Amino acid sequence: MGRRKLRFSKLYSFSCFKSPATDDHAQIGRKGYSRVVYCNDPDNPDSLQLNYKGNYVSTTKYTAVNFIPKSLFEQFRRVANLYFLVVAFVSFSPLAPYKAVTVLAPLLMVIGVTMVKEAVEDWRRRKQDVEANNRKVKVFGKSYTFTETRWKHLKVGDVVQVDKDEYFPADLLLLSSSYDDGVCYVETMNLDGETNLKLKHALEVTASLRDEESLKRFKAMIKCEDPNENLYSFIGTLHYNGSQYPLSPQQILLRDSKLKNTDYIYGVVIFTGHDTKVMQNSVDPPSKRSKIERRMDKIIYILFSTLIAISGVGSVIFGIETRRDYEDGKYRRWYLRPDHTTSLYDPQRAPLAAFLHFLTGLMLYGYLIPISLYVSIEIVKVLQSVFINRDQEMYDEESDRPARARTSNLNEELGQVDTVLSDKTGTLTCNSMEFVKCSIAGNAYGRGMTEVERALLQRKSGKPVVEADDSCNDSNDMGKSVKGFNFRDERLMNGCWIHEQDSDRIRMFFRALALCNTAVPEEDKESHGVFYEAESPDEAAFVVAAREMGFELYERTQMTISLHELDPGSGRRVDRVYKLLNVLEFSSSRKRMSVVVRSMENQLLLLSKGADSVMFERLSEHGRAFEAETKEHIKRYAEAGLRTLVVAYRVLDETEYCNWEAEFTKAKTAETADRDVLVDELADKIENGLVLLGATAVEDKLQKGVPECINKLSQAGINIWVLTGDKMETAINIGYACSLLRQGMKQITITLDLPDIDALEKRGDKEGASKASLESVSKQINEGKFQMTSAKASSTELSLVIDGKSLGYALDKKLEMSFLELALSCASVICCRSTPKHKALVTRLVKTRTGKMTLAIGDGANDVGMLQEADIGVGISGAEGMQICYFFYKNIAFGFTLFWYEAYTSFSGQPAYNDWYMSFYNVFFTSLPVIALGVFDQDVSARLCLKYPVLYQEGVQNILFRWSRILGWMCNGVLTSIIIFIFTTNSMIKQALREDGQVTDYAILGATMYTCVVWAVNCQMALSINYFTWIQHFFIWGSIGFWYIFLIMYGYVSPTLSTTAYMVLVEACVPSPLYWLVTVLVVVSALVPCFAYRAFQSRFRPMYHDIIQIRRAEGSEEIESGSSVSGELPRDVKLRVQHLTEGLITRKS
């Protein structure tokens, strides 16, 4: 049936629909509460003077105006790029030892490629912004009709119409809806991660504005709070028709939430664009730099120091030698013509010549700095992102969605993550509740097994447990798949419950589930069946379970609930209509929900369901017949990770109900500040003397593989925090379901759900409540730290659960360090009812205070701040460390050959190589192999990494990129340069290479030495690769081959351009056997030291991945896909792994 005629405001009892005036509203007009909105009055002079932001939003890092300057700033805060920019300018002077174009061209290419990458990634973000800003919405215009306009054109005060399944374009005040009394359903998944629908309600005074004619006369003013990030509060007043009406969050529809199950709503725009609460919770896209990149800068500072040092040494020696060239009126090196030279070489002004030589040296030895390092790593990251996007193991077949790496800036940091901060709803769970078990009259029903039960059984037995399909929509084995119902028990199914001994209690149990809710049945137009729109997935699961057991809710009106009930006597389904008298709705403080109904037999029934902590104390003496059995079942269900509720009822006396109803009506219509207190007290009064029926158990199905994933992450030494917008009870249950919380853990709970604080808030004492809350959180943190000390002594694991209000105070500057100390000592941390701002602040706190790598996982707009604050990355553990070390090795090996040649030639400033040799070294001849290493290399297969998660600690502990390893590679580069220079010069000089008998000259020596460098560094790359593909072979040997091709082609260019390279390979080097012999001997000699060290290290001091590689090479590990592992690690390796694991435990404690 349609729901337009339902007047939910008459069913509910508490303040969710009526906004009592509180002391907060007295602040309107003061600082922080100064916003004024003129509704549907665009021509009002006062409205025109207000300069509120428009509704255009932008989440991009750049704009068309600032892209070039901001992007250039990003590039030139990399010290190497800044250095080469300075060198490029200076190279136009006579000081340069080479042509300016040979420096400028590579720099422009490197900067250009990086800027293009940044532009492409930001353009993708801009496309999403354009799509959002250009969505259409209906606006009530000056012509008094609704016309479509784009979101970005909305203004504060506009009246808009939003239709079913559309997103709200701005923060709106709900005026009315397609329902008579102005209620609407809203999905807030993009704000708080929850998919259950929220019920919003317009003020009664505006609920009648339901057509263009009534809106034509509507003029009002809103005074409210200024823009802020708090999603769960709103303070304001509506001035309409000479009266004032207080506003609450129940009348506010937030941007990016969606209208559901309501044909349309009318609303007034209050906040637009970046003033909306969802945008207030977001932060500007940060200019993130990975820790490896920051360490690269430090290494480059070392290389700069080396560059300055060798330039200084060279200039001092050059100055001394220059001064000696003219002594006592005599010229020592007369052939240099000291008597006819410039200031670059002037024996009579040797200090000046030495200083100018120092500047020349800074440019000449600049090849120590790898100009292509940054751009090569950028290319590697982009290619890694492509592979991530196309990884079949990360493809979700059900949703037909692959993984998507939105940015590639931080790929390498996945291999170093210390803490994972995850959202819950939709990330850990499917957000789909299923009714799986129940306890009725002391009997347990339901034969299914949850993920937690399977995990417990597997741990106890040590054997794998055969499990059913883990997909989010499990089918039951009693028939077709039913969403929300995964119950299996032949004692109750298919009407068999009528044969049970306690059939009367079973009937009342499922009748209570069918009646005690606010779900509304809707007809599925495709299947012609009935589905239910409920405020929460739990409630929908209860109604579906009741239907499957023979109690189908098929119609609801404002005052009645109609069921198809299975009649035990006839075995047929009969129609029964119950009159709905009151709904006492669920709240976090009450922890229960009740309805009062009148049956067709004129019997008054109070049906109630709620948390066991509040329900058992409300049972009557004669209603506790099977209390002990029910408590035992609830305990068992909780251990299985299920969410439980106790179900009870009471038959009401007519006189008692009439008296209570009169008091209750009076209380809920009161205008006093203590209205809520009175309503609570009256609800407590009638919700007593209950008779226990049983308990329900529902499961929020986990995403496939979540428990196993968390187990592997824990074994790898990674800390896991869950930041969720869910209630505490929900989050705790899911914590158990996904093994984040485990039996035997000591749980520390920090909450402000306390009677004293509730009383202060209800009295409107905001300052007193804030002070008491801060003191309470501080006290609870200190108590937790005391428990932490005792838990360490007994080796007990701790878990921390904190609610959203408490978290807000724990993040105060006075408490944040104490809170962090407590949280870091816990094996698991769950933050409940977290706002997007909370998530971002917690992530920032962990990242900045610990200095460790953080990874955030989320699935909604409410997670954006957290994602932006965290160090997010995807990549291969350790690859970038090797890649970067190799870059510095090859540049030091190349750069120091220039230095040795300078020393050999009395620091003349003459480079050993042709200008274009030097320019192309980093760009073409040595950069491609390192890209192949970063993209394709893997030291251990993914299967073995999963088998031995402790290997991940090589990345967390930065073993492959620690300073000792970096300095080792640098020393290897210096040694390689010495071997190449000494062996080449001693083998080639004074040897006749040309056919006419000419000995080796400057051009031949430079080409030969350069050839040895290219061969040595590329072969060194080949020795470092663990996993060869044809691409790596192509890049390594192709780079060497390209050097010869380039030298031939460049050698044929006119000698005025090619200079020393003219025909040098074809005429001098290729015909000479000595050239080839020297190349082979020098390259082998240069590789021997590293090869020897690597052989020694892998055999006698192996790293963890070395051990796996050796066993794999020896055939001790099966490496075929899908094969089983045929053996365990040897004893010595087990001891090393055990040592590392113990170290992780010590580090955490």
UniProtKB/TrEMBL annotation:
Active site per database record: 423
Name one cellular component (GO) term: plasma membrane
Please give the cofactor(s) recorded in the UniProt entry for this protein. Answer: Mg(2+)
Q: Does the keyword Hydrolase apply?
A: no
Pfam assignment, any one: PhoLip_ATPase_C
Query: Where does the record place the P-type ATPase N-terminal domain?
Result: 37-102
Q: Which UniProt keywords are listed?
A: ATP-binding, Magnesium, Membrane, Metal-binding, Nucleotide-binding, Translocase, Transmembrane, Transmembrane helix
* UniProt-annotated binding residues for Mg(2+): 423, 425, 859, 863
Q: TM spans, by residue?
A: 79-97, 103-120, 299-320, 352-375, 886-904, 916-936, 966-983, 1003-1023, 1035-1053, 1073-1093
- List GO BP terms, alphabetically: phospholipid translocation; protein localization involved in auxin polar transport
Gene Ontology terms, MF aspect: ATP binding; ATPase-coupled intramembrane lipid transporter activity; magnesium ion binding
Domain P-type ATPase C-terminal, by residue range, is: 884-1102
Q: What is its EC number?
A: 7.6.2.1
Tell me the CDD domains matching this sequence: P-type_ATPase_APLT_Dnf-like (cd02073)
Query: What membrane topology does the UniProt entry give?
Result: Multi-pass membrane protein
Catalysed reactions, as listed in the record: ATP + H2O + phospholipidSide 1 = ADP + phosphate + phospholipidSide 2
| Signal sequence coordinates | none
The superkingdom listed in its UniProt entry is Eukaryota
Binding-site residues for ATP, renumbered to this chain: 423-425, 539, 586, 609, 643, 724-726, 833, 839, 862-863
Compartments reported by the entry: Membrane
The UniProt entry's sequence similarity note says: Belongs to the cation transport ATPase (P-type) (TC 3.A.3) family. Type IV subfamily.
Q: Which PANTHER family match?
A: PHOSPHOLIPID-TRANSPORTING ATPASE 8-RELATED, PROBABLE PHOSPHOLIPID-TRANSPORTING ATPASE
Q: What does this protein do?
A: Involved in transport of phospholipids.
| Name by which UniProt lists this protein | Phospholipid-transporting ATPase
Its taxonomic placement starts with:
Eukaryota, Viridiplantae, Streptophyta, Embryophyta, Tracheophyta
